[in-house]
Amino acid sequence: MDNMPAFYISCRLLITLVAGTLLVPLALVLSLRYMTAYGTWPSISVGSCAFFLGWYLAFFLGFFLPVRWKSTIGWNAADQKIWDTNFWVISLSCAAAVGAGLMTYNFAIVRGFGFDVQVTELRSMVIDAASAGYVGSWLGGVGRLLISAIAVAWIVACLKWRDLSAQALTLLLISTTVVFAYQAKFEGGRFFSSAILLAAFFATIGFFVSDVTRERRVNILAVRPTHVAPVAILLLMLVGVTSYSELVFVSRGARSAQSFAQLKAADAPAAKKVEQIVGVERLADDQHPLAIAYLQYAANFAIDLSSARDSQRIATSYGQAMAWIYLTQGIGEFDRIFRIENLRHSSGFYQFSQIAQVLSKLTGADMRYANNLSNYGTYITLPGALYVDFGTVLALVLAALSGICLRAGVESMFAGAATFLAILAPILFVIVATGPVTTLVTNLWPCAFWIALTQIPISTKSLGSR
Asked: I need a labelling partner for 373 at 20 to 30 A (CA). Which of 17, 220, 270, 383 fits?
């Protein structure tokens, strides 16, 4: 590294930049919400805005508090001979692949959906079954727990890339393909896949910083091939996920337009309701099917479509139009919840619904959150989900604690440690980064279980080590 160009910045500045990065998605969502090319969202109540912004204020206050938690839980860099990178990457990859197999069997065989049903129809059937009282099975719970191991496997691999063997990397890629195939077939999986990629990118930054840091200064120009390799692999995966998401949007739009045409031909009440909101002339048969699909979908969210007059533009940029709704709907959906009088909070069972399912099986009583939400199943943002779970005060307290934990984890990760908080830091970063859109706590909280397992010392020889 002595012969390489040097431009040093302090670790403290880099940690501040991490906090600044978390402001970007918040600013992006807020700015997109006021873009009117695809319609105009209803205004948000003052109370919802105050709570939403207050949650982020509490988070950043926690992040920058002078109190520091030393991440002593686990093994630090000096104990790396005990903490076996390849063992855990291989073990976690295998666990995730087994989980994907169990969930495939659960959906296709046990619940009888088969392999021919479209994922959009499947999701509707799953929501309807849950509303009708379906509690879930132990097979589904175990499968989801195992699948979450793939996220931790990628974080471990990227944090300790220099110690990763070719065999472990190959198995990780195979397991990732298996998990993605299951997700694409039965659950959509776009957010889960994107979350894994974002967490892996963040862990790669941690690997780079720890590798080029000397005396708490980071030489950001000391990039080597070993730093570029994980980024190149993740970028290829990102291209694949992005292309898949675009394909899903377009194919789903074509099916939606076809379904609407059938409802319209049958003079169904659902079609009349959409025509009343959007306008009959805008849903004429000579309009582009994707434009009709978008207008029909946007009408469900009470979006004022008077500003979205260019049907041809909507059709040609259908993927972007749908992404606009997906990225900006959460704040409005949370506002609808915040306005509910006498809302019964779930005591954690909204986001930790798997625990409710287990308790329901053990006790024989339905412990799931019997909510009165009018928009169950839609995005309600991370602050909104915490509000549903715990109410205003505890949600703000958890925001501050999340900030404290993320700061401690980032510091530990940048120091090259493999502690619990260091491995958890990319997960926390992703959860907060996607918070203005939706909550990923439901999908990612089981990762804490796998991270805790990685703190068990492994004294055997590295599996697949060079």
From this structure: 270
